Amino acid sequence: MNCNLSLNIRADILLQAQAGIKYENIVENVAHDHKKNISKGTITKIRDKYDDTNTLIDKPRPGRPKLLEPEEEKAIIRAVKKDPKLTAVDIYNDPELNQPNASIRTIQYLLKEYGLEATTTQPQQLSPEAIEQRLAFANKYMNEPDIWPKIVFSDESDLYPYKAGKLFIRRCRGEYPLSYYNMNTRWDERTVKVWGCISIEGVGPLVRYSGTMENTKLIEIYESQLIKNYPKLRGSSTRPGALLFQQDNAGPHRHNNVARWFKENKVCKIFWPPYSPDLNPLENVWGILQDELYKYNDDLETSEDVWEVAQEIWKKDINSCIPKLYKSLHDRMLEVIERSGGRIDR
Length: 346
Prior knowledge:
The protein is α+β, with helices and mostly antiparallel strands. The chain is 44% helix and 11% strand. The chain has helices at residues 7-18, 23-34, 40-53, 70-82, 88-92, 104-113, 128-142, 215-229, 256-264, 281-295, 303-316, 322-338, and strands spanning 116-120, 151-159, 168-172, 192-199, 202-209, 244-246. Strands 5-4-2-6 form a four-stranded mixed β-sheet, sandwiched between helices. Helix 1 (7-18) packs antiparallel against helix 2, helix 1 crosses helix 3 (40-53) and helix 7 crosses helix 12. The protein is globular. It starts with 6 loop residues before the first helix and ends in an 8-residue tail after the last helix.
């Protein structure tokens, strides 16, 4: 048995083998889906192990006695199932959960033994339809490099002091993964909900809102901020505006009232493929903003503090990175094409 293979990968291999898929095809699938190189012998060992033991979990090797008592193990597993965002480092630093002072590696082995795999909140798979639309989008705009300076990008985000990057969660084998890219699921009472937009010339308005973003709130923001800051978005009955507007496919964005507002105000939108935050440079701006907020973490006690500092960072520190982000759009299209419509690392 290859101990470097996670339980998720072993289970995938077993399911394919039981479905009658040829071993050479399973080898190719694992290399493509999991970036792991396996042999046909590994597949045979996995099948034999499951047939003999009815499990894919490796038996613990003989060695020193377990540091964690059964009740202590159960307490850790209960805590992780209650809060899947807990990392091995979080548990290691928690004196109540880690009373024996087990090492990070020991905790990682324990979580793996119980089948609690660390999974990024980035979607694990894109549907064929989404891949097809992303690929068509990339092919179209690879040949239209002049389009990017004309686009005003928009997005919503939850801001609070934390290091930007993908968030990982623990989930049991077979459990459906969360399907949000770079999802901000760590709740912090200092959280500030914002809508923002950028253009090639720099940042636009940063608007704070409360509760859930709804179509009425969105239209209010468009009415009070969007046209005011970007009058060139508005066209006429005979001619489109000089700028195009981008928004993703979130529910409020697709509401009939919002579509009606765009039509009445003669604002043209660029089609945006589904599940494509990796193509939106504003996602990178949120990451930069989060990293800057994190530097003030100890000084930010309330959401009002976060909002005040976020506005300062937005106005003073973001503009310098925007030209580079717009230049990256051509390379993003190229990467999507190279990955046949797959997600890119941005």
